[in-house]
Amino acid sequence: MKVGFALSKGIEDSPGIEEFIRKDLPLIWEKLNTVEKTNLCRGAYHSVINLIQREKPDIAVLFAHLLWYRNESFFITLDPRTVGDKEISIRPVGVITLIDDIYQVRERIRNRSSKSGPRLRVNFTLEELAVWRDFEILLSDMLTEHILGQSRGFHYIWAIKHPISSLWSLIAKPERLVVYSAFPISSTRGHQERMDDIDQFRARLYEHFVVSDPLTIDEYPLLQKLHNLWKDTVKREIEKKNTTIPDGLEINFDFYLDKCTICDTEYDIIGNKIIMEQPFEFQGTQWNVPPELLLPLDEQIELTHDNRWPLYPRAVFRNTRPTIGQNKFVVSIPAWEVMIATRGINSQIRTRDFRLIERADAIVAFRPNYKRLKISDGVKQEIRFALELRQSYGMNLDIITIWPSSEDGAIPKAGGAFGGGAASEFDYASPMETLDEAIEQLERKQEEKRNHFMGWKTPSELAERKRTWAFLSTI
To answer: Could you tell me the pTM of the whole model?
Structure first.
């Protein structure tokens, strides 16, 4: 099977472009006007299309940034009108936006640009990278809609830390079932026994299906590091005012509302300053606080691979190939940069998970009430969103919960003792005691999907399928 082609190949084949490639590309790029930049990218794209038409590969994949960002300025490298040119006789079957944790993207860019000399050095903040990623996804949505329409095309947002085989399945094996794996993360992170149970669940799904795994993007540890830094600061200042710190003191930060809560007392956050106009009460005692407290911004927050949830422990994932971006790493980021990006990161976590559910054939929620600790709010929201897709938009989406009642208690029923009130999210999901039951049901659904694609029996249909291609944008 012939597979290949990338935008860089097209650039190299474009007339008069060799000199451009040989020189310092970023410096030359900044001297071009908008028309020259557009013509350059358009010519490179047409060169790639001509190459695909000439070589006729079974599957062609085009890698490129849809959006370039430099000196606080965006430039669209691929005009959707170019894809719609009438002289192009083939169309991509879909678009895949490849993403990674922004703290690692930040580090890669800094490491690469530091080797290019001071004139080419480029440093992006976390906030800039979060915005760039959102714009890249939005532009990919527009491209998908323009070239294929919602009913025919696909747009996957896919983390590069997924196994490479999963990406290949999205491109070349559309008959495989895509399953979104949902499970409690906050209440299980850092507890080895709980993480082992979830890893066993994830590994079993990987053996049978293409798994859309929320752990492949894990930016929460960065926010947690900032919270811990500021909690320690608040505790030190309280201790100065009271000579001691009460055990069990709860301190939380809400960056959406700019609030710091100590026990049940809320304080406003203005910039990096907590306005503390009154003492807080805890264990029947009033505790003194300073009138205002400055949160540290210049301290460095260090994050390493050990702070992430290990993605593919060898003891569990015996057949999973290593993925991109799994190397050991150490990043150091000033607290002010993390603070500015916090809102964007938080909002993108939920939005991104919902997008993954939109493109899935099924969602399997593993033990939402793990060992009766607390029903996971995140899993509840994901199930609720999946129900909305199924009920309001008619999506053929299986919703399964793995809920061993002997360990996790009874599934909550809506309406209390008299059966009234609104239904719970779990009333509409298919509850199962074991993962084996869920896999058995999903295998039947996968067979149905396989039969659907095997229904393309005519030579022309098969030939058309082989000659289609996917467009991969990346951030």
So the answer is: 0.86
